[in-house]
């Protein structure tokens, strides 16, 4: 493709994003199923699809109840945003509560899967607050709303590091939370993230029971 064509395409894409993009300061939540690879290996694909439907129905229901927005479902991962149109700190507390309920709900769901199918599963959650852009990406047939920015990347990395039953969140989340929310929180050493210059101050809501499940 000629440079002039690439230039015109870039201008067109920039104009499209400018018309749909929304700059905001918000909280991003990632939730990822633990033990999915082993589960998919052992069960029929149709059964796996059914279990994922159950998993995402719980997560999306929790996000909606806490007045968040689901932006992305991929594989066994959900991404949601809270407070994109609000200036108070209340959405941070709602996002944290969503993470807590997701962990508890998925613990019960895992027990049910163990009973029905003999498989173990869990969920890890990551939370981060910061600047981001909500915009649309992709060509028209598959264009969808999503969140972009360092805030999203940090939340995703924290989710990847969270073990089954854990919530990892950054220092940006800690401030707006009340004392009751922080009663069982553990401060961890600052976490250097690959490709990112500044390490992240992180905190953990530990799992009630340790499950040796990989983040895949």
Weakly predicted, low-confidence segments:
6-14
Content-based structural category: alpha+beta
Order of helices and strands: HEHHEEHEEHEHEE
Q: Tell me the Rg in angstroms.
A: 18 Å
Q: Would you tell me which CATH topology applies?
A: Alpha-Beta Plaits
- Counting DSSP H or I runs of 4 or more residues, the number of helices is 6
CATH superfamily: Nucleotide cyclase, GGDEF domain
Tell me the distance between the termini.
Answer: 38 Å
Shape, per Cα inertia axes: globular
Total of domains? 1
- Summarize the amount of helix as a percent range: 40-55%
What's the mean pLDDT score? 85
For the report, how would you describe the main beta sheet?
A: 8 strands, mixed
Strand content: 25-35%
Query: What's the level 1 CATH class?
Result: Alpha Beta
Gross CATH architecture: 2-Layer Sandwich
Beta-strand segment tally: 8
